[in-house]
Amino acid sequence: MSRSRKRKHQKFSINLVKKEDKRINENYKEYKKMNKVKKIGIVGNWTGANSFGITKPYMFFWSHFGEVSIISPMEKHVRDLDLLVIPGGPDVDVFRYLREEDDIDLNTGAPCYQRERFDKMLLPKYIAKGTPIFGTCRGLQTIAVTLGARLKQDMHHETNGDNRHALVHGITFDNIEVIPGLEELVNHPDSKDYKVNSLHHQTVLEETLPQEATVIARHFKDNEVEAITYWPTYPIHTMQSHSEEMFDKFSLVLISHLLSLSDEEEI
Q1: What is the C-alpha radius of gyration for the chain, rounded to an integer number of angstroms?
Q2: How many Cβ atoms sit within 10 Å of the Cβ of residue 214?
Q3: What domains does the chain contain, in order, with CATH numbers?
Q4: What residue spans of the chain are helical by DSSP H?
Q5: What digits encode the pLDDT tens for the residues 71-114?
Q6: Who contacts 137 (Cβ-Cβ below 8 Å, separation ≥6)?
Q7: Tens of pLDDT along 149-168?
Q8: DSSP state at residue 18
Q9: Is the per-residue pLDDT at 49 higher than 70?
Q10: I need a labelling partner for 144 at 20 to 30 A (CA). Which of 10, 46, 218, 224 fits?
Q11: Calpha distance 71→78 (Å, rounded)
Q12: Are 154 and 104 in contact (CB under 8 A)?
């Protein structure tokens, strides 16, 4: 495909998505209001055979909230951040949470050892420092494991195909009084049948969560964990769904709360 044809194709594809998905456009307007400059660090990884960083959706999405920097998993010290983002990725290393009597599920994938290095060496330090943290998909899982939980290695419910921003299943909310602004969102008429995307095959075993954890959203049918907060013990909110693909209002509430904490420190 020639460069000119490729540009035309890309422009057409972008316009098509915008016309088909008014939901993203409407929510996007709310995200554009986030104009305070915050220091946001996202853990990077190999994005290709000879490249390192984060994918475009993460950069585009999180740039609405502040100045984004990429964190190398090989760093030795924690940074001074307003928000640390733990993105999605491969399965968490099972040997971080398996008990002696547990087996490895045949559908469990290989871990990424660069990410595992960060999770073992740096994530606990960020938690101990009190850095606000937002975890996406694998981020939810590895934070839970770091704090003592175990994972369900393989589960089955609706999953996205090529359209990563499609909303494929509903969620139900719980403990909505814990996060400022969440109760208002959940009680809004538009949130009656709230749906999210889904790109994971593992989730947290709720009964193994530490006492600091509070489940704030579940799958609408099977009750699998979809979102967890560790607030007020830790300034940490996590979701199984991918905010960077949805621009949804639930994510906005959680992120806004975490970013507001640095404003309170400045007062």
Answers
A1: 18
A2: 17
A3: 34-266 (3.40.50.880)
A4: 3-20, 22-32, 56-62, 113-121, 123-129, 138-146, 182-186, 243-246, 249-266
A5: 999 999 999 999 999 999 999 999 999 999 999 999 999 999 99
A6: 87, 88, 89, 199, 200, 239, 240, 241, 242
A7: 999 998 877 777 777 878 77
A8: H
A9: yes
A10: 46
A11: 9
A12: no
